[in-house]
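Example 3.2
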Amino acid sequence: MSVARSEYIFTSESVSEGHPDKVCDRISDEVVDAYFHAAMKNGFDPKDVRVAVETLATTDRVVLAGETRGPKFSIDDYDTIVRAAVKDIGYEQDGFHWEHLTLDCWVHGQSTQIAQGVDAAGNKDEGAGDQGIMFGYATNETDVLMPAPIQYSHEILRLMAADRHAGVRPEFEPDAKSQVTLKYKNGRPVAATSVVVSTQHKAGLSQDDIRDLVRPYVDKVLPEGWAPPEDEFYVNPTGAFTIGGPDGDSGLTGRKIIVDTYGGAAPHGGGAFSGKDPTKVDRSAAYACRYLAKNVVAANLADKCSIQVSYAIGVSKPLSVYVDFYGSGRCDEAALETRLQEVLNLSPRGIREHLGLAKPIYARTAAYGHFGRTPDADGGFSWEKTDLVDDLKDLAG
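Structure, written as tokens:
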């Protein structure tokens, strides 16, 4: 389908955990985790947890809305979850403070009509929580098999946030954005042509001060010799950035879906991830597609691989599976489409069980990307494993 260009310039952006939309993603995912924690503690089967909760944040106010099924939660429970998340991110500012904010909660029970389509019953397997298309992608241009522009954008902000939390860089405040533009030759990234970093900061610092503080993080992340020209290194280009977070701009769950995935280097389905339990294939099938695509590239079947699946609400099997190698493949794409469905059951239940998704592993995904991460011992980022390589290698031509 795609014809790969050999020389081009490509840009991706990231946003920090303190960006207003990411604050909302974090709160929504903390609610998902809280339901799984409560289920395990109170004898409720985690596979029966249902959460679809979205968050709105603005000046000293957070609004929760959505549908759930599982252990009973009170307004006080939600209040505790929200304040703990905001405090952990680091918001103790005039205009947005974990202790002073007001919570409005409009969470209610899951629709019975959705439940009857999703739940297993009799001979019917669990169905998808909605219709839709989902994509996964992998490329061998970085060691984590992610596109370089988005991976570098994430890493700059992740390192800055780590030093802010550790007290190494108290000048930084939680809200930040990054953008990395790379030059590609022969289809491989070779240099940065521009880098943009905007970070909220303490009052009294000049633009040059912030530039000097940010530069080491960019230098650490970019490969040696890749730094952009000095006049293409932009730090806080609007000047002062002391008013940030939900006080500077309202936030909403699910508004940073390209940041969450591949930075625009690959297609994206119609749905966001955060605030959703794994019966929502927007999330779980996107994880499964990344898992499969990563294993395909790790098995050296292609330099780049995009996988699309589609579902109908209430139906367990995927309606379609499509593979695209962008002209870089070393096996037959149609044969791979068949093999992928043999090595991974792509029903919602099959994905949940294979990747171990009915666990409190979601808050950690809310910032710095859902992909390109290191699998955790407790099952977090299980979709980043490359344990299917041996099942796929024989397809190589």
